[in-house]
Amino acid sequence: MPIVSRYLVALLMATSGITFNAYAASLSVQVTDQTGQPLKDAVVELIAPQGIDVPAAVELNYKMVQQNKSFVPFVLAVPRNAVVDFPNLDATRHHVYSFSPAKTFEIKLYKGRPHAPIIFQNPGLVALGCNIHDSMQGHIYVADSSLVAVTDSKGQLHFSDINTGSYQVKLWHPWQKKHQDRETLKLTDKAVSLRFMLPINLPKPVTKPASYPNYQER
After folding, report:
1. From CA 120, how far away is CA 77, in angstroms rounded?
2. Is residue 14 one of the residues assigned to a domain?
């Protein structure tokens, strides 16, 4: 950012009473497994300390679709208080439920769109299942922060327009071998690229989300 622009931003902040750092940073993340392969469906959450403003989530309405007897996406990351719809695009009916402490609920046998979405107020991990199709598994990661995203098929994700400062980084994946310690990241008004390795175990067949062998609550 040019010096003149920084001065104008600082002046506007001072006259308006805003105290947080508004210089924008960006972060690109690559996550791999222990073999170096790109890891899809890994969650990365950035937690800001007090004094650093975190922008509100761009989207508060999300979808966890049932299609081809699967949950799509397999992992959905949302900020707390997010509203999630569960549309069923299959010809057969589904009975969606969760036993997780962060959110216990059920949507009984239905096709199409349920009458009402589900609100996820509490941060934590939510394992999803279908009472009709035991092979169906899905996960909703409810974050404290609005800075949360899931890696794509290349194991990559990107955050943009983040306020500068120090953040704690949390990593999670449904198949991770053990709890990952938080890492500290300092963002400046530059583009930053990071690479993380997250050891995983391949999943075993299960019948209920509550008994996932590698499922770990935060």
Report:
1. 11
2. no
The type of residue at 153 is S
Question: What's the length of the chain?
Answer: 218
Nearest Cα to Cα of residue 113 among 140, 82, 86: 86
Residue 11 belongs to some domain of the structure: no
**Element of type H or E holding 4:** helix 3-16
Asked, for residue 97, whether it belongs to a domain, the answer is yes
Strand runs labelled E in the chain: 24-32, 43-47, 61-63, 65-67, 70-72, 75-79, 82-85, 94-98, 105-110, 118-120, 124-130, 137-143, 148-150, 156-163, 165-172, 183-187, 191-197
- Flag whether 7 is in a domain: no
For the segment 111-160, what is each residue's pLDDT rounded down to a tens digit?
Answer: 998 878 999 999 999 999 999 999 999 999 999 999 999 999 999 999 99
- What CATH code is carried by the domain that includes residue 64? 2.60.40.420
Provide the residue range defining the domain that includes 60: 23-211
Nearest partner of 212 among 115, 100, 113, 102, judged by Cα = 100
Q: pTM for the full model?
A: 0.81
| Residues 67, 111 contacting (CB under 8 angstroms) | no
Q: What is the pLDDT of residue 161?
A: 87
**Alpha carbon distance 86, 164 (integer Å):** 36
CA–CA dist 157, 96 (Å, integer): 28
* Distance from C-alpha of 18 to C-alpha of 21, rounded to nearest angstrom: 9
